[in-house]
């Protein structure tokens, strides 16, 4: 029960700050969104926390299309939420590229 409450709180705080960030999708804004909002579960350095490690080495088996789908749709029946309401497909793709390469154009 406590775990569920914590997960919901994580999601809410992530979604609130993300909704603000989504208005500005400059590379800097997307990178800070990844570290802060995704980082609330995956760790600020993305090495894992409530969610798994999402640094490039851990995601090497993904291609960009699949990875951006995971970001947009989440992983059903897990704590990984869908970001489609808050991110455009283009932004999700840029995040996927960032996760795989470790930098953003
Ligand atoms: C509320 C917590 C939470 C937030 C916020 C969150 N994730 Fe996740 N994420 C998870 C969990 C938990 C999993 C593991 C799901 C499972 O059991 O398969 C996961 C899985 C993933 C995976 C798949 C990892 C793999 O090895 O297959 C990726 C990629 C990912 N998240 C990216 C992101 C990105 C990018 C963001 C920000 C846009 C984000 N996540 C935000 C909780 C979260």
From TrEMBL:
Pfam families in the record: Cytochrome_CBB3
Protein name, UniProt field: Cytochrome c
The keyword Magnesium is annotated on this UniProt entry: no
Molecular function GO terms recorded: electron transfer activity; heme binding; metal ion binding
Signal peptide: 1-21
Organism in which the protein naturally occurs: Roseibium aggregatum
InterPro entries in alphabetical order: Cyt_c-like_dom, Cyt_c-like_dom_sf
Transmembrane listed as a keyword: no
Keywords from the named record: Heme, Iron, Metal-binding, Signal
Domain Cytochrome c: 23-103
């Amino acid at each position: 029960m406590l775990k569920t409450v914590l997960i919901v709180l994580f999601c809410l705080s992530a979604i609130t700050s993300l909704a603000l960030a989504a208005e500005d999708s400059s590379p800097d804004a997307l990178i800070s969104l990844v570290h802060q909002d995704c980082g609330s579960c995956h760790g600020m350095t993305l090495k894992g926390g409530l969610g798994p490690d999402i640094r490039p080495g851990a995601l090497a088996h993904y291609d960009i299309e699949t990875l951006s789908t995971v970001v947009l749709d989440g992983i059903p029946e897990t704590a990984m939420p869908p970001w489609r309401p808050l991110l455009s497909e283009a932004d999700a793709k840029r995040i996927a590229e960032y996760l795989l390469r470790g930098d953003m154009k």
